[in-house]
Amino acid sequence: MEPKSLLEIGEGLKEPFSPFEVCTLDDYHIIVVRFEGSYRRHRHNRDEFFYVLKGTLEIEMELEGGPEKRVLKEGQCAVVRKGVVHRTSSPDGAIIALAEHRAISYEFL
Length: 109
Known about the structure:
Layout: H1 6-11, E1 20-25, E2 28-38, E3 42-44, E4 48-55, E5 57-63, E6 66-72, E7 77-80, E8 85-101, E9 106-108
């Protein structure tokens, strides 16, 4: 694979929440997504890794101990574990790189 800039890929995306697959690694894929506003509340059957390339990402999670909100800034990352109900949002917009299993499924709530 030739070197690529994930940020440049993300800045070229016009539609929010329309992932662009950069590459695959065994059973995983690396995708870049433009976030604008809020995404629907959901959960997955696999873990999900977020890395903020530009902007700020808020992740609201429903954990056993109660709700938790994480705010990720540029250069920060977090993992949402499988089965955790969550909603992501970025009021001012963000470009995010994600690593997900290719067989990940979404259950919208």
